[in-house]
Amino acid sequence: MNTQRAKRPHWIPVVAALIRRQDQLLLGLRPEGHSLAGLWEFPGGKIELGESPQQALARELEEELGIQAEIEELKLAITHSFGSTGIVLLFFEVNYWKGEPKTRHHSELKWVSLTELGKHELPEANQKILPHLLSILK
Ligand code: DGT
């Protein structure tokens, strides 16, 4: 067997929402029992077979927050690998939705102003692109 090949990470497509309310973004605290528990994330998740990125994000926001969201522009795409896995993370802007976000999945939800974002513990994939993300959102 080619060992170099076996060590290559398996890349997983993930979508995440930049849900905006004035100068604030919605963050969710990742729950116990999931990877990266206790870190603040942008709501979203893995794209399932046969879904477009936009369909996947609309589904995740319905499942996780109970909102019907309009998925807007792709703002940023990044890659991040941890050992044998890698994620391709697509960030979409969301400015309009129906319903009030509820904690169906996260341990906690929080509206955070752009200036306070850096004070929250985020997954490394997000932390490393935070300055760039903020420059895009301003
Ligand atoms: P897992 O990772 O197997 O425990 O499964 P889930 O269901 O908790 O993971 P899911 O569907 O949220 O997948 C998202 C993956 O992307 C997960 O490995 C965490 C990673 N990730 C890094 N930054 C973010 C972010 O800002 N938002 C979301 N939703 N995921 C992020």
Would you kindly provide a brief summary of this structure?
The protein has 138 residues and is α+β, with helices and mostly antiparallel strands.
Give me the secondary-structure topology.
Blueprint: H1 3-6, E1 10-21, E2 24-29, E3 40-41, E4 44-46, H2 53-65, E5 68-69, E6 74-82, E7 85-94, E8 97-98, E9 108-113, H3 124-127, H4 130-137
2'-deoxyguanosine-5'-triphosphate binds at residues 14, 16, 34-36, 41-42, 44-46, 87, 89, 123, 125-126.
Give a structural overview.
By secondary structure, the protein is of the alpha+beta class. The protein has one domain: Alpha-Beta Complex (Nucleoside Triphosphate Pyrophosphohydrolase). The chain contains 4 helices and 9 strands; from the N terminus they run H-E-E-E-E-H-E-E-E-E-E-H-H. Strands 1, 2, 3, 4, 6, 7 and 9 form a 7-stranded mixed β-sheet that branches. Strand 6 and strand 7 form a beta hairpin. It starts with a helix and ends with a helix. The model has no long low-confidence stretch (mean pLDDT 94). Bound molecules: 2'-deoxyguanosine-5'-triphosphate. 2'-deoxyguanosine-5'-triphosphate (DGT) binds next to strand 1, strand 4, strand 7 and helix 3.
